[in-house]
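anyone seen this seq b4? input:
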Amino acid sequence: MSKDSYKEFSENVDREVAKLVDRANRDAAQAVDRALGRTAAPAAFDTAHWQRRLDELLAAHRIPGAVLAVLTGGEIHELASGVLHTGTGVETTTDSVFQIGSVSKGYTAALVLSLADAGKLDLDAPVTAVLPDFALADAEAARAITPRQLLNHTSGIEGDYVNDTGRGDDCLARYVDGARDVGLTNPPGATMSYSSTAYNVLGRIVEVVTGRTWDEALKELICEPLGLEHTMTLPEEVLRFRAAMGHMGEPGEVPTPTPLWNMLPRSAGPYGGISATAADVVRFARMFIDGGTAPDGTRVLSAAAVEAMLTREVEMPDQWFLGAHWGLGWGLFEWDGARGFGHDGSTFGQLAYLRAIPEKGLAIALLTNGGGAAPKVHEALCRELSAEFAGVAMPAFGPADPPPAVDTEPFTGRYKREGFLMTITARAAGDAGEGVLDLRYEGVEGLAGTFDPLVWHLTPVSDTPAKTVFAGRRNDKDAWIPVVFYALADGTRYVHFGVRATAKSA
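predicted toks r here
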C-alpha cells in the first residue's frame, strides 16, 4: 500500500471510528435521558390556552375552584381558576393550599422506602418485628403481615377504619392500638384491596424507627430536601396560606361549602392528611422522574428505591380506576407503551389527582375544592395534556358497544365488609335507566345512617373466565367507574369496587 493510499485509508478509519464514537455517545446520552425521564423538547406550554380550558371545564361542571400544575420540558407551569369558598368569594391563586387526601399515601410510602434504603427497615419481615404489640381481629394474620403487603395493598386489612385519637403526638400509637379489633377483607396476599388502615400502620412504623412523629419525619426526610415549602399536615400550618374550603354536591348541582374545613382527625395523616399546592405535588412527583434526587442534586431516595416504588407488584382486579397494577405506594399504568404512576385523593369536599409519565418528563396535578363532576374535569385535562406533552392517549373507560351478553345470576347477592354493605340485584325489563344490574351501597353497623344509600346502574364491559367487568354510574352526569366480579383461588366470590375487595356474604 502506497503512502498516499495508507493515509487515505487511515483517515477513512478515523472518520468511521469518530462516527461510531459519536453514535455511542449519543446512544449513551439518550439512555441516560430515558433513565432520568428526559425526552426531546416537548411542545411549548401555551398558558393562555390551558387557562381558558381550565376555566371552561370548571364552569361546565360547576367546580368552585381548582389549581393545576404541569411539569413538562423541565419546567413547572401553574394555573388557578375559580374561588376557594363560594361563601366568601376569595379568589383561587396558584399558591392556594388544598387537601390532597389519599395522594398522601405516596409520601408515606416514600418515607418507608427511605428507611428501607438506610437499612433501618426490612420490608419483608413481619410488622411485629417493629411493632411487637401490633394486633388485629385475626391474630395469625397480624403476625404474618409485612410492610411490603401494607405498601402494595395486599395485607387484607379492612381499609376504612377511622378513629379520632386526638391531636396529641401519640395519635398514631393510639390509632394502631385501637385497630386490634379490625378484621380482614381477604387473607393476606390473596388479592389487592385498598387499605387506608394499612397506611396508618406504616405511619406508626415510621415513628418507631425514626423516633419522630410522622409529621416531623415527613418534613425532615421528604419536604425539606425537596424544597416543599407549601406542603403541611397540621391546620395551624395551613392557616399561614390561602386555603381551599371543601364543597359538596352531586354532578350538575351547585355545590355548597362543607360545615368544617377538615373533618379528618390528625390520626388520618399518613393515609390522607397532607395539604399542599399543586406545584408542590408536582415537585414531589418530579423526584421519581429524576431518579430520587431533588432539583439541587440532593439525594432523597436511592434510584433502587424509586424503581421499587414504580415496579409492578400486584395486578389490580380493576385495571382502570388507579392503574392496571400497584407498586410500593403508587398505582401504575401504561398508556401507548409509556409507563406512568399516580394516585387520586378525596376528603370531605375536596378531590386531588396526580398522574406522571417519567420517560416523558411529564407530571400533572389537579386539586379541586368540590363538585361531584371533578373526575370528569381531571379526565379531560389529563387526556389533553398527555396527548400534547407526552404524545400518548389516555384510555377511556365505559360500557362495550354493544355490551356483551352476561349471565348476571352468579353476581347477585350481598357483599359485606366492616361498616359497608353492597347489594347487587338484577334490573327488571322496563326499569328506568340503563344497565342490567343495580349496586346499592350503604353504611351498616357503626356507619349505619351516616350517608344516604347510593345506587349505581351496571352495564357489561367484558366477560372472561377470570373476571367479569361492568361499568357503573348513578346517572348520565356521572363518570363511569369499574365494578369487577371475580373469585379467589379458594372459590370465594368477590366484587372489586372503589379499589376495594369485598367478599360475597349471601
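The first helix runs from residue 3 to 36. The two ends are 92 Å apart (CA to CA). kinda curious what u guys think
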